[in-house]
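FIELD: query
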Amino acid sequence: MKGFYDIEGDPKTAPTVVNATPLLNVSLPILQNDEQLYLSRALPTIEFTMSRSGYRWATDIVPTAFNATRETLKLNPYQSQFTTSYYLGLHRLLGELNPWLTNIALPGDSLRAVKGYSTDFHKWNQALWAYRLTGQKNG
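FIELD: result
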């Protein structure tokens, strides 16, 4: 499932994983130049954020705010909770060698529409990162 077991989830409804700090999981092995840690933590985290609908993901519909419909179980980076800021951070950490991440960070040249996870995401913060990515004042 590419995430860490979610202790807040109810395994009776569906096994659930959470990945609340994805850039930490990517940055640590890069900063430490640790290939094994990259393969065991960063790569699964990148796969998680490129496919799952949000910070929490379950194997089946869960009768709570996350994965409550079949639509949220689809593996699709364009319909996920991860932000423009996240995808720009990922792009930078990966040495800006994946320009296709721009299309995910700014779908349709717009900021990602995201819902918060324990906190609100401020549009100005996302706009700042979009500017850093593209150099354009409107994003």
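FIELD: remark
The mean pLDDT is 85.
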